[in-house]
Amino acid sequence: MKYLLCLFFYGSILWADAHIFVYHRFEDNRYPSTNTSVEQLRKDFTYLKENGYKVVPLEKLITALKAKETIPDKWVVLSIDDNYKSFYEHGLTIFQEYNYPFSLFVFVEATHKKYPDYTTWDELREIAKYGSLEFHTYAHGHMTHMSNAQILQDFDKGMSLLKEKLNIKPKYFSYPYGEYSMRVKNLVKNYGFEAIINQNMGAIASFSDAFDLDRTALVGKSDLAYTLSRKALNAQWLEPQNYPEDGILKKITIQTDTKEKQAKVYLTGHGWRDVTLQDGNLDLTLEAKLLHVRSRVLLDINNKITNKLIIKDTYGTQ
């Protein structure tokens, strides 16, 4: 009996997974693809509270991850991208009501140039009393269409303004539109952030890469229970690494730490297909024409998932 209890306890640690979620707009029906109603936000938060989830600051998760500590299965991190005014006007009070910490990723130009749908510097100062302010670039450009020099110029300008106006130096970064390539990731990683957040649905475990953390968007009528049931799959992506030059995906090669024999693979524009694994590894040959300049490849093994966004990079792979 003691052996079985130890085995169960070890298994519960092994498969512990946290989740990072991102919101954008609140109570703004003009943009349904990025909007969350106040009613839905309360529903999400009530579900978390009633089901024993602990909303922790992003910093707490990153600290545990870098220390290679076990990531508790009930941890949730909440983030907001783009500092829309609707967060200040509709979302913030609910975060305060539930006493939930958050990280707001700031689109600096929108505030600096006083775009009407975005928070002012004074409003950001007020928001900073309740959560952390992080970086989401200066101009919110498509980074795979920007040169290294353009990206660094954007970052220097944005970070300088955040220091000048708010006296903060962000520790974390999230990609505009969730778009990045290996070139962009390596450049941002070397900029000095402690962690980088993507927008690939998934979960966070002790083996997760702090510079490529999966984050799931919550918009509309989100199915939080299902989203929280997803687990992180420990996987090494060998192919694809980058968007193929001819636009045709020929191989998907992924090594995992499972011994499963069956899985499902998803490719944007082509849907799902059942695949057979060899010792838990996928080596799939195909001739799939990519139908979009950004495509997602996802491997699902019994609801443990790993996925990669492959996007055409104007400036190559390095």
Biggest sheet layout: 6 strands, parallel
- Total strand count, please? 18
CATH fold-type name of the largest domain: TIM Barrel
Distance between the termini: 54 Å
Number of domains: 2
Mean pLDDT: 93
- Measured as a percent range, the helix fraction is 25-40%
Question: Mind explaining what this structure looks like?
Answer:
With 318 residues, this protein is of the alpha/beta class. It folds into two domains: 2-232, TIM Barrel, CATH 3.20.20; 235-311, Immunoglobulin-like (Sandwich). Helices cover 30% and strands 27% of the residues. The chain is built from nine helices and 18 strands. Strands 1, 4, 5, 6, 7 and 10 form a six-stranded parallel β-sheet that branches.
SSE layout:
Blueprint: H1 2-14, E1 19-23, E2 25-26, E3 35-36, H2 38-50, E4 54-55, H3 58-66, E5 75-81, H4 85-98, E6 103-106, H5 108-112, H6 121-127, E7 132-135, H7 148-166, E8 172-174, H8 182-189, E9 195-197, E10 216-217, H9 224-229, E11 231-232, E12 235-239, E13 248-256, E14 262-267, E15 271-276, E16 282-289, E17 294-301, E18 304-311
Parallel strand pairs: 1-5, 1-10, 2-3, 4-5, 5-6, 6-7, 8-9, 11-18
Antiparallel strand pairs: 12-13, 13-16, 14-15, 14-17, 17-18
Helix pairs in contact: 2-4
What are the key terms here?
single chain; 318 residues; alpha/beta; TIM Barrel; Immunoglobulin-like; 2 domains; six-stranded parallel β-sheet; five-stranded mixed β-sheet; 18 strands; 30% helix; 27% strand; globular; disordered N terminus
